[in-house]
Amino acid sequence: MADLRVRVILNPSAGAGGAMKKLYEITDTLRRYDLKHEILLTRHRGHASELTRQAREEGVDVVAVVGGDGTMNEVVQAYLNEAGEPLPGPDLALMPFGTGGDFRKTLGFSGALDEAIARIRFGTRRPIDLGILRLTGHDGEPLTRAFINITSFGIGGHVDAIANSNPKWMGGKISFLLATVRAMASYKNADVRVTVDGASFYEGPAFNVALANGRFFGGGMMIAPHADPSDGRLEVVVLGDLTRFDATTLSNKIYKGAHLAEANVKVTHGVRIEAESLHPWAQVLIDMDGEQPGKLPLRATLAKGALTFRV
Predict the structure, then answer these.
(1) Where are the extended beta strands (E) located within the chain?
(2) Quick one: 54 and 190 in the same domain?
(3) pLDDT value, residue 230
(4) 257 shares a domain with 283
(5) How far apart, in whole angstroms, are the C-alpha atoms of residue 39 and residue 200?
(6) Per-residue pLDDT tens for 41-85?
(7) What SS3 state is found at 153?
(8) Is 220 exposed, middle or buried (0-12, 13-18, 19+ CB in 10 A)?
(9) Would you say the C-alpha torsion 86, 91, 48, 150 has a positive or negative sign?
């Protein structure tokens, strides 16, 4: 185990710059655990994907991600080929320091640095499912992306667009709360059709629809309390034709995962989910792990156990 080769990919912007402040502590802790390592900083959007591909080519054993959900989303893009098929690669480890930390909550990680590095040295290897999303890019062209946590559409995409323009020093939960308030002031429920494993599941106005591999999104909202990222299926949670008052009231229950039995909430699960707008002229934006890559129509599938995490 002492010969384990670890490559740390650190996003200097993660946690409003807090990750960079931990650089010395990260290095010192890795040495204490007798882990051979190198630390590389991301320099631009998409760089984490490039560094992960290089790690595969160079035979690195573990890629340790220092950042939030956005950095992890960049990393998992390297586990798909150009045809949207899963690729083998290094084990993954997570040192959460980002604005958003929703996926780590599903895995039960506290965020403590010593604990995170101990998992690399002594942890078990857990297979994790990888979401594969085929969607429509902003330019109208087909696009294939990987996701690890949650893809949603409806108000989620609009919230993303606003939240990603907010200053990161506000933190994930506050940033998403403020973005949600702003988005709700102008958002109109989207008329959508959702098909799960070839069968019609929902058709009509939707406030938001989540396709969940993990349990949390939006800075701590437990949208899919029964989701398990190792079970080979996606939880589908539809928040239907909600008014603004309904949505505001429901949000407190969503943070606790106590919303599934409420009116206008529908839940199922499946391995192949397709969604489209009922109106070709309507633009329904997508949220994917806190990123905003495009719009409906989409098709989501899973590559079961395509990733291996140190837990």
Answers:
(1) 5-10, 36-41, 62-67, 91-96, 125-137, 142-147, 150-154, 190-196, 199-206, 208-212, 234-239, 265-270, 272-277, 286-288, 294-310
(2) no
(3) 98
(4) yes
(5) 48
(6) 999 999 999 999 999 999 999 999 998 888 999 999 999 999 999
(7) strand
(8) middle
(9) positive
Give the count of domains, the chain: 2
**Any bridge partners for residue 37, and if so which?**
6
Q: Please tell me whether residues 165 and 264 are part of one structural domain.
A: yes
Name the pairing type of β-strands 208-212 and 142-147: unpaired
C-alpha–C-alpha distance, residues 57 and 241, integer Å: 48
Same structural domain, 109 and 234: no
Q: Look at residue 21 in the predicted model and tell me its pLDDT.
A: 84
- The sign of the dihedral angle between the CA atoms of 167, 48, 41, 103 is positive
- How far is the CA of 235 from the CAs of 58, 88, 224, 266, in angstroms? 36, 25, 7, 11
Residue 81 phi, psi (nearest 5)? -90, -175
pTM value is 0.93
Fill in the DSSP letter of residue 46: T
Contacts of 177 (CB under 8 A, 6+ apart): 219
Two tokens, residue 1: 């185990």
One domain, residues 96 and 146:
no
3-state SS of 165-230 is: CCCHHHCHHHHHHHHHHHHHCCCCCEEEEEEECCEEEEEEEECEEEEECCCCECCCECCCCCCCCC
Measured between alpha carbons, how far is 193 from 297 in angstroms, rounded to an integer? 10
The tokens describing 222, both together, are 């437990």
Which residue type does 306 have? A
pLDDT for 116-146, tens place per residue? Answer: 999 999 999 999 999 999 999 999 999 999 9
Location of structure tokens 């599941």: 201
Position 52, amino acid: T
Identify the residue with better confidence: 216 or 166: 216
104 and 196 in a single domain? The answer is no
Q: Six-digit token pair at 92?
A: 């993954």
